[in-house]
């Protein structure tokens, strides 16, 4: 192997991008006091014998800043959609109007804002751990190559590459968390 070792930094970057993408999805599910169709993305409905995302059983709209509506296509699923929303932990009380389910978004109180801010912090920590795991994998590949004859200078170069990439992704997580927490705490 020796001097022709090339670490697959594209693979490491792809895996770290996955951690960032997952973090953004988790952040989108956190309510900030404003209506957003993305807040319903994690909610699954038992429809036709399998778990289905809400946006696949009805049309999700945001007609005003504090209201989300779901126009359920199949009348027989209205009750199941309502139940799924109640049990989702979003803290929203659905109101039925025929096949339309209205979700008024209540104003967040200070305690709930702090709670959501902590949840956002937990999501960010999970993303950091995922990124560090990818870093560890990269460092292990470099150490293995060292055992196969990689020069010490090359080893230091690749370790520095992996560390710089890790630092850059951790910074992205921290910035995303800061933005989300500011959004949550905004009254």
Automatic annotation (TrEMBL):
Q: Where in the cell is it found?
A: Cytoplasm
One MF term from GO for this chain?
ribosomal large subunit binding
User: Is the keyword Ligase in the record?
Assistant: no
Name the principal localization, coarsely classed: cytoplasm
Give residue ranges for domain Ribosome recycling factor: 23-185
GO BP annotations, alphabetical order: cytoplasmic translational termination
Cited InterPro entries: Ribosome_recyc_fac, Ribosome_recyc_fac_dom, RRF_sf
Functional description taken from the UniProt entry: Responsible for the release of ribosomes from messenger RNA at the termination of protein biosynthesis. May increase the efficiency of translation by recycling ribosomes from one round of translation to another.
Task: Please give the name of this protein.
Answer: Ribosome-recycling factor
Q: Which organism is it from?
A: Salibaculum griseiflavum
């Amino acid at each position: 192997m020796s001097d022709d070792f090339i670490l697959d930094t594209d693979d490491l970057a792809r895996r770290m991008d996955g951690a960032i993408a997952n973090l953004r999805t988790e952040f989108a599910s956190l309510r900030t006091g404003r209506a957003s169709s993305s807040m319903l993305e994690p909610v699954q409905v038992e429809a036709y014998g399998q778990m289905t995302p809400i946006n696949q059983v009805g049309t999700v709209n945001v007609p005003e800043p504090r209201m989300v509506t779901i126009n359920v296509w199949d009348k027989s699923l209205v009750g199941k959609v309502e139940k799924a929303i109640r049990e989702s932990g979003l803290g929203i009380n659905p109101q039925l109007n025929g096949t339309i389910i209205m979700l008024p978004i209540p104003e967040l109180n200070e305690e709930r804002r702090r709670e959501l801010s902590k949840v956002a912090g937990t999501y960010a920590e999970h993303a950091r751990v995922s990124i560090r795991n990818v870093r560890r994998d990269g460092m292990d590949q470099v150490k293995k190559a060292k055992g196969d004859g990689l020069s010490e200078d090359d080893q230091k170069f690749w370790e520095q590459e992996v560390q710089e990439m890790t630092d850059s992704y951790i910074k992205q997580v921290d910035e995303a968390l800061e933005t989300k927490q500011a959004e949550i705490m905004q009254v």
